[in-house]
């Protein structure tokens, strides 16, 4: 069951759902808790976002 909890939170964060939504679903009183636990997910999403932007800029040039 605990793994399903992590899968759910990870999936929500990777699909761009605002952090306060999975935080509430997980029962975290503060979204900062969720961000600390799932920092690796948000970092990978940031890298993916940068890569998408760079590709779009390259195509526009």
Order of helices and strands: HHHH
Number of strands: 0
Q: Pick out the low-confidence regions.
A: none
| Molecular shape | elongated
What is the mean predicted local confidence, pLDDT? 87
Can you describe this structure?
The chain has helices spanning 2-14, 20-26, 31-37, 39-60. With 61 residues, the protein is mainly alpha-helical. Helix 1 (2-14) runs antiparallel to helix 2. The chain is elongated. The model has no long low-confidence stretch (mean pLDDT 87).
Question: How would you sum up this structure in a few lines?
Answer:
The protein has 61 residues and is an all-alpha fold. Helix content is 80%, strand content 0%.
Task: Give keywords.
61 residues, mainly alpha
How would you summarize the topology of this molecule?
Blueprint: H1 2-14, H2 20-26, H3 31-37, H4 39-60
